Amino acid sequence: MAEISAGLGTGRASVGAVLDFAWSAGEFTATDVMAATSLTRSTAIDAIDTLVGADVLRELPNARVAGSYRSGRPARRFALSPDLGVVVGIDAGDTHLSVTVADLRDRNLVHHRVEVSQTQPASERRALIIEHLGAALDEAGVSPEQVLAVCAGVAAPVDRNGISPPHPDGFWERTNPGLAEALSGWAPVVHVKNDAQLAAIAEGAVGGAIGCRDYVALLASERYGGGVVVDGHVLHGAHGGVGEGVVFDHIMGVGSAVGLPYSVQDAARDAVASGIVSSSSALGKLVAEERIDPRLVLTLAASGDPDALLVTEHVGAVVARIVGVLGSMYDPARVIVCGAVAESIEPVLEVARRLLPSELHLPAPVVLASDLGAEVVSVGAVATARRAAHELSVPRLAEERLSVLA
Asked: Which of 172, 187, 297, 384 is least surrounded by Cβ atoms within 10 Å, i.e. has the fewest?
């Protein structure tokens, strides 16, 4: 509330309090405002009317018109104006690009997802992101002037200015091709953040970490990376590198930061190549394919296939070692495995949970599979953009409109 009031200027604390309340209230009455704040009825009504006059709030049909009227004078009902604007969340992954246009009341208007080449030059990648951003806004029927905030997630560490440090192979520069600058003209507030950090924000907002103050969101699809939350705060670091997966290249029993699907593929191939698993078995036939679908291997394991269970035993030991390292470093209460692979990962997690207590001296964290699927980073990006609109863009817009009315 203090941030809202500050954004609206001194002397407008009551207006700020009402605006702050309106963000999470949906439809509300002056009585609802009084119950949630310290405002008197007259002050609450004056503040509401001020915001309605500035078209920041919209008055809704009263209870009689809405069909819920019983007796007495129907209460006036209000909500944030749908015309305030939209927010945009971007998930610029290594092999995919997602753009989501959303309103301010937790509703997605447009969602685009396309596959992208891992060898795409940075300049082409930047142009593609801008192209799909424009296309998504066109489909949503909104102009760039209506965008209140943009948040983009990238598979790279990102500092507080949205800049990624140089990578020995140029990977970070490609996955974050100057997005802070490229997006700067698209909204009054632009954030570029690490994808695992956005996954952690998503899990805390609508996923498996609701109500938890100490957890790690472990992205496990293309590469391992952790979004770390301690005491309710997302940890960042000087360059945005907290939770960066390169550490797993140096951990005995892990040996690589490549993600869980690749671990499943490698373990399946090794099992057949060593003769432990017959090439004529169900798993052997999957391995004979040019590309192994790790989800099919995990589905076999879930059905009790003994050969697939050998694979999950190996991969589960790797996950237990990874979670053990994270548990020893950050002492989380939960580790939530995120990404598209999470929907079929339970056979691996069963092994990891069994082995985990021997991997660390602290109490083992609860290990969960995310329910947010492949769009977990998009969910976090939209949530971050909405928060930026809440705390910065809309208070500024309200202040501008109120100044014109004054």
From this structure: 172
